[in-house]
Amino acid sequence: MPTNFTVVPVEAQGEKRDPAERDAQRQEEEEDNRDRGPTGDGIARESSPFINSAEMDRGNMYEGKNMALFEEEMDSNPMVSSLLNKLANYTNLTQGVVEHEADEDTKRKEVKVPRMGTFIGVYLPCLQNILGVILFLRLTWIVGTAGVLESFIIVFMCCACTMLTAISMSAIATNGVVPAGGSYYMISRSLGPEFGGAVGLCFYLGTTFAGAMYILGTIEILLTYISPSAAIFKAEDGGEETEAMLNNMRVYGTCIIILMAVVVFVGVKYVNKLALVFLACVILSIIAIYAGVIKTAFDPPDFPICLLGNRTLSKRSFDICAKFTESNNETKTTTLWRLFCSSSLHNATCDDYFSLNNVTEIQGIPGIMSGVLIDNLWSAYSEKGSIVEKKDQPSVSGSEDMKIGGRPYVFTDIMTYFTMLVGIYFPSVTGIMAGSNRSGDLKDAQKSIPTGTILAISTTSFIYLSCIVLFGACIEGVILRDKFGEAVNGNLVVGTLAWPSPWVIVIGSFFSTCGAGLQSLTGAPRLLQAIARDGIVPFIQVFGHGKANGEPTWALLLTAGICEIGILIASLDSVAPILSMFFLMCYMFVNLACAVQTLLRTPNWRPRFKYYHWTLSFLGMSLCLALMFICSWYYALIAMLIAGCIYKYIEYRGAEKEWGDGIRGLSLNAARYALLRVEDGPPHTKNWRPQLLVLLNLDCEQLVKHPRLLSFTSQLKAGKGLTIVGSVLQGTYLDKCTETQKAEENVKALMAVEKTKGFCQIVVSPSFRDGISHLIQSAGLGGMKHNTVLMAWPQSWKRTENHFSWKNFVDTVRETTAAQQALLVAKNIDLFPTNQERFTEGNIDVWWIVHDGGMLMLLPFLLRQHKVWRKCKMRIFTVAQMDDNSIQMKKDLQMFLYHLRLNAEVEVVEMFENDISAFTYEKTLMMEQRSQMLKQMQLSKNEREREAQLIHDRNTASHLTPAVKASVAASVPEKVQMTWTKEKFVAEKHKNKDTNVSGFKDIFNMKPNQSNVRRMHTAVKLNGVVLNKSQHAQLVLLNMPGPPKNRKGDENYMEFLEVLTEGLDRVLLVRGSGREVITIYS
Hints:
Blueprint: H1 10-16, H2 19-36, H3 58-61, H4 80-89, H5 118-130, H6 133-137, H7 139-173, H8 183-191, H9 193-226, H10 241-266, H11 268-296, E1 304-308, E2 311-312, E3 324-326, E4 331-333, H12 335-340, H13 352-356, E5 359-363, H14 418-425, H15 434-437, H16 445-474, H17 477-480, H18 493-497, H19 502-534, H20 553-569, H21 572-600, H22 614-631, H23 633-653, H24 662-677, E6 692-696, H25 708-717, E7 723-730, H26 733-753, E8 759-765, H27 768-778, E9 788-792, H28 806-818, E10 822-827, E11 843-848, H29 855-863, E12 873-880, H30 886-899, E13 905-910, H31 918-958, H32 962-971, H33 982-1005, H34 1010-1030, E14 1035-1039, H35 1050-1060, E15 1067-1071
Parallel strand pairs: 6-7, 6-9, 7-8, 9-10, 11-12, 11-14, 12-13, 14-15
Antiparallel strand pairs: 1-2, 1-5, 3-4, 10-15
Helix pairs in contact: 5-11, 5-16, 7-14, 7-16, 7-21, 7-22, 8-9, 8-21, 9-10, 9-19, 9-20, 9-21, 9-23, 10-19, 10-20, 11-16, 11-19, 14-21, 14-22, 19-20, 21-22, 21-23, 21-24, 22-23, 27-28, 31-33, 31-34, 34-35
Pfam families: AA_permease, SLC12
Membrane topology: Multi-pass membrane protein
Family: Belongs to the SLC12A transporter family. K/Cl co-transporter subfamily.
């Protein structure tokens, strides 16, 4: 049926009301809000950088009453408008500041909105970091040694590696804000603090060694090509040149590292300003190379090379490339003659090879049209100290009796092979992270980082690949293999190709290597500072401190110290593979992070960069790993060992961080997969081990009453299998939420102290009984469910006020039996050893009364795996009755233990039938009298409670209105009305009194039940036997008899168990699950 209604605006409704009434209501609501407190339900909310970062004006938040329904939660859940306002005002963080973290958001200072675009902010920094020392100092030598084809393969592999890494990095960088820390931030937040810390420190070491490499390159350019006379150490003999050069590198390198550290410490802003100047030097140098290549097509430069036979001669020692010169119709010997002969005379004794071969001169830069590319296609690897020789040049071999070390030949300084060249070349393609490291300075980081980085890699890859072909097509092979340009008067080889002058390349490369070294010394300390401030590696936290303006002073000192190690190595060719390892490891984990996030399909994985795929990331990861072992397998193993040690250290000692990382998601997926694979049914007997549910009892402060129960758990489990530590709080979850969290924290803290590896589960239930039942039924997941319950014996079970009373205990025993689970009850648990104690002697005694599936045999074996019980011996006792052959029983038991591969002493104890003692009768009688008295007391208590309830109901009824009374009367059926007289009341009172008195008289006149007498007899008799044999044992394991089927005898059952274990210090009552848990078969 349609209903007519009218819509009235909220404002209009407010206007119709009296202003005084509105003010009164507003005041009342404000008081109500103050009384209610800051949060609606008292439940702590998850912290968020946008929700809890600043206090908001309460009046503005609650303006108007449109959202009155939600006002109680406004503090923790603000309105969407305020959230969007904060998001709009949020700015990225500048490089070098502690990275963005939710719990530290209140410490952030407002910074200017960054305005850098793709070209200035990403493209040029990447270009500057990628192009550098290797291009100018080693690329020509790599081309000459490996040949154009193999060099092309080397460069293509390295460039493909960085391109694939850049694609993965772009996906990660565009999946949200990437503050300071760059690659470290990306890896740690994607793969977790362990991987992040390990790879972050490796990346830091790589950046630091890169600084050492750039400084060594700077010194090499200075001492070899700019000012050779500046060398402090001079080579007296030709064979000592290498050693003298290394010493010069060490001295100059130490001076430069100190100078650069001072510059970075004093004025880092000037380093950043000079970056564009250094980049301009690099770009001008590359342009000069291309200009020189074009010029060689029509006018090759004049750089003659002197050859003796097919051997290349170093022009540092002579000027004229000939044996004789004609002067005034007179033939004179040259300086070259005197280098190979004993004197300047024509009849002097000369080197055999010098005498047999002619001296020829060829052009070092024949030009791009000369066809020299065909000769340079193939590799020319050589041993250390061999002479650089020209292929296909006629030569006559002479006797090599004379020493060639002092001759002016061009020698190779190291042994060359393909994989070594890969390690030397790879640093020239690093530096792709420069853009992501500056994400805080970009106008639109999620657009600029992928575009700028991929464009920079494409540009540099084109430069490298084209240079390889052009060098091979323009320069003679012997010049390419001449690492230090000795055959061209000590000129930089790539400089001989440049136009207009070789000095363009020399000066440009000098300044670019200087700038790159300064950039490394600027960036590496900030990376270390970001890792230190995260707090995941405790021993480096001191490096998180710095000057008042945030400059990392201590980190700079450490960086300079590590850099000095690279300087002391002194060889650029030895340092390059070291930093290749660290960079490759970092790139490998960037690819892994992207692949993991993509495969897991986590809801937060929503990169704006769409041109990625997990196969590309996996290929990049595989390529990085392959390149690590191609470069140097032993360096790769060392780098992985360092990363592994850092990983385990962070895992063991580091601060726990929850960053929503991919490894956690991967673990969850793996756990889910494994759980689905695990059969839900019981495992095979060979695989059976106790999967424990430990039932703890907490006090009023939510502290564990019996900590030794967890000690015993860790001794029994030794970290293997499943352990669930459970406890029950009485009440409702809404009321006990805070206590539950506190209890869980306390239990987990105790588990950590006792080294109990497992899970904690706190259940809140209206009654302890139901809570324990819920735990037994529902603890665990799928196939990972407990099969054994461990609990402490209720010491104060005779006290009626004890929560964990005998009733709960007996019902727990019944429920474990019904659930087909084993039960372990530790009696006198506070006397059990801690994990720090060690038993140097003693026995673990097993009393095998009835067969329980082998639990009694298995438990001592598991306990003796732990250090506490390792030196205890295992003894097994079994009981023989009147009709049993005790000798045969002992033999059979020994054979059984032999097949079980258990070492234990065996003893058969004979228990003969005898009369029941008066003590047993008396014990049984006392037990039954106590039970009956408790029932009477409970009955009286119930009657008092019913009487109190009746009075309450009457009082309630007297306050009811007539209408309600009428409705109640109508709903209640008619009752018989009784009129109480004084005589009736007195008679009833005496009747109740007589009943109670007669009940207590019956208690003292009763006779014990014969069934209970027999049970008590067994308990007393067996206890005597156990005390006789095992009173001094370190631990006694006993079969635990089951509770009676008739529930009326539950309290008697507790008394039987008490008598059975009386006088023993440490007892473990064991009740099997009804299935075999140990087998003789393999």
